[in-house]
Design goal:
The protein is α+β, with helices and mostly antiparallel strands. 51% of the residues lie in helices and 16% in strands. The protein has ten helices and ten strands. Strands 3, 4, 5, 6, 7, 8 and 9 form a seven-stranded mixed sheet that branches. A three-stranded antiparallel sheet has the order 1-10-2. Helix 6 packs parallel to helix 10 and helix 8 packs antiparallel against helix 10.
């Protein structure tokens, strides 16, 4: 039997009342799965959001250290650099689109892999600059005022002209839309670039405590040994809830498909007696369920996107993160695709098992009725 024949058989009863009920079930289950996957994605992002920020990997030492002690610190595992430079400086610059003053934050690029270049190149010259892909050096937020095609533009700060040679995605490191990077050499020439304490950059926030303990062994006291993550553990809770919702969804789908197959037992027995193999009957039922699920998936996705945007843009703290560019709360379409895959897998497992289980029963029922 080819695909055309299967579709002809399905067409005769696909929109009957029982299938309409199944579609309603599919719709709400898919919507629930999309919401819970988005929730799990959000909790995962929230858990690791503070870890993204490079400054949260900095340990501060306020006591005066000798050159020998500084060299010992550099040899500790997980230490990236030791510096007495500020982590960033704030400057006012003329806006590109108005005569008002805009803002820009300059960061010294002391850690080679702190940012990933998306367009352009890395810093090669003293007065090169790397800025966010969506650069926004303005006081008042207006999405239409993002500076586009910024590579090659020049910015004058403290009498020096910096040229933007590359861009990076600021949400990957928890920076704002106006955080740019310049060379260490150029940064040292800026006012207030020096600080009265040492910054020790660690490769990962999880290693802050280890480095702090190693410093303690050297007799060096750290003022901030561990950055507190208020959301630590939330990701595991959301994972448990997600798995629970998926299990409940499979249970509901299994039972509805079971009722649907039993309702069509007479039809399947006729097909069986007419010479159709179990495999063909299984393909007909599976194709019908996938068609119903796909229709519901499209509708539930549209509904999910509307609900997601309403929630995100009506919670002040989330809106602020979106506006400043520090939070990446865009819809993750991979999770939408994952939700569809989960539903199809559930349908495939339930249909294959139940068809095999009930097909012989359909023949027995037909013989008994005769």
């Amino acid at each position: 039997m080819n695909l055309k024949d299967r579709l002809w058989i399905i067409k005769s009863h696909i929109f009957e009342k029982r299938n309409s009920i199944l579609m309603i079930v599919f719709f709400f289950l898919m919507l629930a799965i999309l919401i819970i996957l988005a929730f799990h994605n959000f909790m995962g992002y929230l858990t690791h959001y503070e870890d993204l920020k490079p400054r949260n990997r900095d340990l501060h030492i306020y006591e005066k250290l000798s050159e020998n002690q500084i060299e010992q610190i550099k040899k500790i595992n997980h230490v990236v650099f030791v510096s007495n430079l500020n982590d960033n400086l704030y400057f006012e610059i003329p806006e590109y689109n108005t005569n008002e003053l805009g803002i820009i934050y300059l960061n010294p690029l002391l850690e080679k892999n702190e940012i990933t270049i998306k367009n352009g190149k890395r810093l090669t010259e003293k007065y090169d600059m790397i800025c966010p892909t969506k650069f926004y050096p303005h006081e008042t937020f207006n999405e239409n005022d993002f500076i586009k095609n910024i590579i090659g533009r020049e910015v004058t700060i403290n009498g020096n002209t910096f040229k933007i040679v590359g861009t990076y995605k600021n949400t990957e490191v928890g920076n704002s839309l106006s955080d740019c990077y310049i060379s260490e050499e150029a940064f040292t020439e800026l006012p207030n670039s020096q600080i009265d304490y040492l910054r020790i950059r660690v490769d990962n926030t999880k290693n802050n405590q280890y480095v702090a303990s190693e410093l303690n062994k050297l007799g060096i006291k750290v003022s901030n040994p561990k950055y507190p993550n208020a959301y630590e553990g939330f990701e595991y809770i959301s994972l448990f809830i997600t798995l629970l919702i998926l299990f409940i969804s499979f249970y509901i789908i299994y039972n509805f498909i079971k009722k649907k197959i039993r309702y069509h037992l007479t039809t399947y027995s006729i097909l069986k007696v007419s010479g159709y193999k179990n495999k063909e009957i299984y393909k007909i039922d599976l194709l019908e369920n996938i068609i119903l699920a796909t229709i519901c998936f499209i509708l539930s996705t549209i509904c999910f996107i509307i609900i997601y945007n309403l929630v995100i843009y009506n919670i002040n703290s989330l809106t602020e993160g979106m506006v400043t560019g520090e939070a990446n709360l865009d819809i993750n379409y991979w999770y939408i695709l994952l939700g569809y895959i989960f539903i199809i897998l559930m349908i495939w497992i339930a249909t294959k098992y139940l068809i095999k289980l009930n097909l012989n029963q359909s023949i027995n029922n037909t013989i008994r009725n005769k």
